[in-house]
Amino acid sequence: MFTSDEADLIPDTSITNRRLLWLAIVVVGVVYFFVAHNFQVSRYERFAPWSDAEGTLEAGQNVAKGLALSLIGMLGVCLILRRDGRPWNLTGWLPALMIFYLAWAAASVLWSINPGMTCKRLAVLMFCVFGAIGFARQFRPRDIAVMAMTIMTAYLAIGIAAEVALGTFRPWSSGYRFAGTVHPNTQGAQLTILCLASFCLARSATRGRRWLWALFAVGLVFLILTRSRTSCAALAIAFGVLWLVNTSTRTRVLAAVTAGFAVSAAALVAAMLGLDVDDKLAEMAMLGRQEESESLSGRVPIWLELTNYARARPLQGYGYEAFWTAKHIEAVSEEQQWPLREAHNAYLDCTLSVGLVGAAALLLSVFLSMQRAAAGYRATGEMGFAFTLGMLAFAVVSACLESGVASPNLITLIAGSGAAMLAFCKAGCGQPIRVQPIRWGGSCTADPRNHHEDWAAVQLPPQRVP
């Protein structure tokens, strides 16, 4: 039994207002399905139901979609204003960097090449920000994972039903990619979130664990069917990050040596037997999409050309999400000989948008959020923190080849909710969770009796303890 003082240090395990959580799930799920999904996607050539020159659906160019996205912002404001939410905590560099990034993005209207476009995109960004902060203030880390898993499961079920109804669900066919109601690459990102959420919830569940593992397996199968190389690689790296964070240094070294020995031994055996494994390895890495290998190598010329545009405005950029005007789309597409409206690299798109200053602030915010999530996970064993860490790791990796994670959308809303919880809110409702300073080479310490430092204000990297 804990004493009264020790009881104050136990992480908040009170039941979240289920009505609020389900309201958030329904609103977010319905809004983003209306904004970004199309039942006919699997029938279109290259899964593109709209012109590349029309801009992103999240841009607010369509009035109905803009009004739908405003519902998320209004819901977030209502959750922020509720009195029973977590107390605010604005200490440390993380909230300062996030606020600076938002202020810099807003200020970019002053030098934007298209102020009207920037204002529309800023409105969508603020809807997402208010929603994320509202979710962070009212829900637990685990609830964010529940929200993500529920929404993505519903999207997967609807996507399967849509393809079956259209007769496009043919996983046995050569070249098949599962799309559902969005592009396969977007579907891959959604299924990555489903796998991360179900994995984290299964690890901590006391009931229904088998169903969660089954959902994880289903999500993994359909992720492979999307043949999204970036999402598959990012999921593997995200799991690797979670393993590294909660593993001793000795185990890491042993695993590295064992893996190196196994790879060397396999290569030696293949060479002695005269096996040609290069093609097989290439096929596995490309997920059977060798005919589209130029889509990877073709990104390099795009990056080189867009780097020249970035050099013209290195510090401030062209205004928040204002670079891809009709003029720039036409110029870049003509030069590259194929239609483009993004850099296929979130880091480069962010630099074109808000310059090196804004991109640096955003990237530092992500890494500090990952540090705090890792600290919370190692100190409390809370798998909600693990989910946030995995989401941010996925975003960092996928940003190398995709631009979606740099714009406000469902994926960034989910990841941002976890990051906002770490940046702006204390962990408990009325009482912060206390955590032990982290021994990064050690194992997870989840005993609440040992917690004596507020994780939301922990100094990272934490001090080592003797």
Q: Can you tag this structure with a few keywords?
A:
17 helices; 2 strands; disordered N terminus; 466 residues; globular; mainly alpha; single chain; disordered C terminus; 1% strand; two-stranded antiparallel sheet
Distance between the termini: 27 Å
Oligomer: single chain
Please give the share of residues in helix.
55-70%
- Can you write the helix and strand succession as a string? HHHHHHHHHHHHHHHHHEE
Strand order of the largest sheet: 1-2
Number of strands: 2
Describe the structure.
This protein has helices at 4-7, 18-36, 63-81, 93-107, 115-138, 141-166, 184-204, 209-226, 229-245, 249-273, 278-286, 294-297, 299-312, 326-336, 346-380, 383-398, 410-424, and strands spanning 434-435, 453-454. The protein is mostly helical and 466 residues long. It has one domain. A two-stranded antiparallel ribbon has the order 1-2. α2 packs antiparallel against α3 and α16 (383-398) crosses α17. The radius of gyration is 23 Å and the shape is globular. The two termini are 27 Å apart.
